[in-house]
UniProtKB/TrEMBL annotation:
It comes from the Eukaryota. SMART domains: Integrin_B_tail (SM01242). One of its GO terms (biological process) is integrin-mediated signaling pathway. It holds the Pfam family EGF_2. Signal peptide: none annotated. One of its GO terms (molecular function) is protein kinase binding. The gene is Itgb1_1. SUPFAM superfamilies: EGF/Laminin (SSF57196), Integrin beta tail domain (SSF69687). Keywords: Disulfide bond, EGF-like domain, Glycoprotein, Membrane, Repeat, Signal, Transmembrane, Transmembrane helix. This is ITB1 protein. GO terms for cellular component: cell surface; focal adhesion; integrin complex; synapse. The keyword Cell membrane does not apply.
Length: 152
């Protein structure tokens, strides 16, 4: 029973937090915890203490590595800029290209959503067309709706 249970009549009786015919499957999800506080970065399932990434773009022990991703921040920078400040590269096409997320303006950076919420959350710091920094968060909820919070 791999040291995680007792063999009785050729059947393993597993100790708490272990399962499987040989008690070789840990129910502990700690190894699956991503840096954002979510199990498998919200992009996979934790099976026997190992992440099984369900989003094919993401891999690694906690489904946090994405070689092909531009990065959520860079990917949405132009749309956040035109929606929030009416400027940037997509200013003219904003209403056609940039309506795919809900946007909320907040007064300051400490009013932005913080890690530990149930939805995958990215904190972003990007430069605008005037070479000024602007800050926003990007998250996707369980319904697949994207939500952006941007500092005024």
């Amino acid at each position: 029973c791999t040291g995680n249970g007792i063999c009785k009549c050729r059947v393993c009786e597993c100790f708490p937090n272990f399962t499987g015919s040989a008690c070789d499957c840990s129910l502990d999800t700690t190894p699956c915890m991503a840096s954002n506080g979510q199990i498998c970065n919200g992009r996979g399932t934790c099976e026997c203490g190992t992440c099984n990434c369900t989003d094919p773009k993401f891999q690694g022990p906690t489904c946090e590595m994405c070689q092909t991703c531009l990065g959520v921040c860079a990917e949405h920078k132009d749309c956040v800029q035109c929606r929030a400040f009416d400027k940037g590269e997509k200013k003219e096409t904003c209403s056609q290209e940039c309506m795919h997320f809900n946007m909320t303006k907040v007064e300051s950076r400490d009013k932005l959503p913080q890690p530990g919420q149930p939805d995958p959350l990215s904190h972003c710091k990007e430069k605008d067309v005037d070479d000024c920094w602007f800050y926003f968060t990007y998250s996707v909820n369980s319904n697949g709706e994207a939500n952006v919070h941007v500092v005024e």
